[in-house]
Every structure is written in structure tokens, then in C-alpha cells.
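FAQ

Q: What does a record look like?
A: Structure on top, sequence underneath. For example:
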């Protein structure tokens, strides 16, 4: 019998090869599932990398519950949280190859495929989650949902996590305090420039490796949301958390277009309605979950939280503007202007 870990490696290797050979040019593949009946239910495998308690973890669990309740015996959803099945990097080719059927990956991690989502990484562009919500709900934001449709990733929804904070072994009161520190970042060139701009050394790394890397000194610092910092226990090994709210983590929930079109119409439209309900529920709760986890970190006493006055934050905001200039043309200056007008 093949062991689960070996099976996952075989699946991943096969899907990466398919992804590379397809040149990532469209979403057609031979493995899309074609039936959804009582004899042969549609199975949606939905891996993700965060803990069940996080905004994404809770939304994914609700999708499983509501989808199965709406189509009893016809649809099954298996959610795999906490990188149990695979990393985000592996799930892109796996969705493309039809090995999994749904993903919710940080917008930052689509950097190799499109510059359009880089807008969400521009430091200090969005002052809060409400501003992100207004932009995502605008015509421009809704058009962004379809950015990768013809490349094998049909966007169904944007899900929020929350605003990002820095954590470090020393207090970072001004950006220059980061000088010489090694920061873990997601796979994003904008985030790389953001850290270089602060004088730090950026290291792209999967979420599942960060705790140990912090603990062993492979990296010194990182940036993430309160819910990820709490659920992944970074606060235990990071004495200072800077409440800068300097960036956003949110997700593109996507499916393989061939798979989605192969579903019976009533199932597809029903699942899209479920997705809308879950998106509304999850996006309303995301901030509350992050504030709850912030309070848990404060109560632990393990990390000191550094807060900033408006004037102090203005110094951070000003110092990051050169990062915008590097990416503005690729993102589209008009889109940045629209986001600013909705702040
Ligand atoms: C996530 O929230 O899905 C992951 C974010 C990260 O990799 O830091």
C-alpha cells in the first residue's frame, strides 16, 4: 500500500509537470470530474494553509457545511487546513491539474502569474479592511476577480483575512530600525521591495516553515495578520509586534474552470450561491476574529505591542512611497487612483 506522504508527492509532481507543460496558458485539462450524482458524488478537495480558527479556516468549514447540506449525497467537500495536504505553492499546479478542486490562496502569492493583484501588497495603500472591501466591491475590483480565468484559475470570491503587522526581536519604531533584520515574506516582489526599502533582508518562505525559522534564528522577523500570528504562535518567539496595519492579506477563492463548467448547472449555481453567502458571512467576521486574536496575544503577555500615533505612522507611509513607484505601471496607475478614491 502506498503511504499518504508518498501519494501526495506523486500527485504534486504530476501536477507540477502538467502545469509547466501547459505553459499555464489556459485551464483545460483532462482530469476534470464530469459527474455529480447520488452514485458518483462530486468531491471538492479544498486544501489551505491556515488554522481552522482563522477567518479562512472558518469560512472554508462553513462552505463545506452549507454545500453538503444543500446537495446531500451529490456534493462532498473535504477541507484540509493547516497545510495538511500541501503548501500554497503546490496547490496552484494541483488545481490546474484537477488533483484538487478549490483553493483560497493569498493574493500576494499569485505574483508570478499577474501584476494585477500586486495592488493589494502596496504598503499603506489601504488604511483598513473597510477600504479594501469598498475597492473589491467596485467595478474595478470585481473585474480583478476574473484576472486569471483564462489561465486555469476561475475566481469565485475574495475572502478577507486582515491587515498585517510586523513582528521582530526588537521594537521597530521607524522603518530604519529594521536595518539588517531577516524578514520572512510571502512569494511577492512587492513585499520583497518593501523589506529592502526598510533596510531588511527579505526571504520568501512557506507559512508552515515560519515558526521554526523564527525559533532557530534562520529569520529574525516577519509580517502577518493577528489571526495568523496568534494561531501559528509567532508571538511566543517574537518579543515585539508593531501595529502598523501596513498591508492586507486576503484570498482569491478559485476553481478550475473546466471542473466548474463540468458540474450540473443546478449544482454549479447552487454552489455559487453558497459561496456568496459564505463570503458575506466570513468577510463580516474577519476583523472580529483578528481583534479576538490580538486580545489573546495581549493576554498572553509574551509580546509587547508597539502602537503608533498618526504622525509616527505618517513617517512609515512616506518612507514606503518609493515602493509604489516601482510597481505602479505594472499594476495600472488608474487602479491605484481608484483604490485611493475609495479610502
Ligand atoms: C494565509 O493567510 O493563507 C497565508 C499567509 C502567509 O503565507 O503568510
Amino acid at each position: 500500500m502506498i503511504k499518504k506522504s508518498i501519494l501526495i508527492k506523486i500527485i504534486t509532481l504530476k501536477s507540477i509537470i502538467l502545469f509547466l507543460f501547459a505553459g499555464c496558458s489556459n485551464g483545460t485539462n483532462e482530469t476534470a470530474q464530469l459527474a455529480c450524482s447520488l452514485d458518483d458524488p462530486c468531491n471538492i478537495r479544498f486544501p489551505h494553509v491556515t488554522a481552522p480558527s482563522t477567518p479562512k479556516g472558518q469560512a472554508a468549514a462553513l462552505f463545506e457545511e452549507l454545500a453538503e447540506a444543500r446537495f446531500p449525497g451529490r456534493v462532498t467537500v473535504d477541507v484540509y487546513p493547516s497545510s495538511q495536504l500541501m503548501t500554497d505553492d503546490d496547490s496552484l499546479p494541483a488545481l490546474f491539474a484537477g488533483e484538487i478542486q478549490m483553493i483560497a490562496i493569498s493574493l500576494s502569492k499569485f505574483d508570478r502569474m499577474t501584476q494585477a493583484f500586486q495592488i493589494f501588497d502596496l504598503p499603506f495603500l489601504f488604511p483598513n479592511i473597510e477600504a479594501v472591501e469598498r475597492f473589491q466591491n467596485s467595478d474595478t475590483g470585481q473585474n480583478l476577480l476574473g484576472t486569471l480565468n483564462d489561465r486555469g484559475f476561475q475566481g469565485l470570491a475574495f475572502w478577507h483575512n486582515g491587515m498585517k503587522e510586523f513582528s521582530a526581536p526588537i521594537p521597530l519604531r521607524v522603518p530604519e530600525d529594521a536595518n539588517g533584520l531577516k524578514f520572512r515574506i510571502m512569494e511577492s516582489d512587492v513585499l520583497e521591495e518593501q523589506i529592502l526599502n526598510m533596510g531588511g533582508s527579505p526571504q520568501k518562505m512557506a507559512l508552515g516553515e515560519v515558526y521554526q525559522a523564527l525559533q532557530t534564528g534562520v529569520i529574525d522577523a516577519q509580517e502577518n495578520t493577528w489571526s495568523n500570528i496568534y494561531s501559528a504562535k509567532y508571538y511566543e518567539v517574537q518579543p515585539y509586534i508593531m501595529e502598523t496595519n501596513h498591508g492586507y492579506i486576503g484570498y482569491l477563492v478559485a476553481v478550475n474552470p473546466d471542473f466548474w463548467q463540468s458540474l450540473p448547472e443546478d449544482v454549479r449555481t447552487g454552489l455559487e450561491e453558497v459561496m456568496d453567502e459564505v463570503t458575506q458571512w466570513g468577510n463580516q467576521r474577519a476583523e472580529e476574529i483578528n481583534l479576538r486574536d490580538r486580545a489573546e496575544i495581549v493576554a498572553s503577555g509574551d509580546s509587547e505591542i508597539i502602537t503608533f500615533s498618526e504622525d509616527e505612522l505618517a513617517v512609515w507611509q512616506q518612507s514606503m512611497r518609493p515602493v509604489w513607484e516601482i510597481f505602479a505601471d505594472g499594476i495600472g496607475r488608474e487602479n491605484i487612483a481608484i483604490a485611493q478614491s475609495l479610502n
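Q: Is there anything notable about this one?
A: Strands lie at 42-47, 75-80, 102-106, 154-168, 182-185, 201-204, 221-225, 240-242, 248-255, 304-306.
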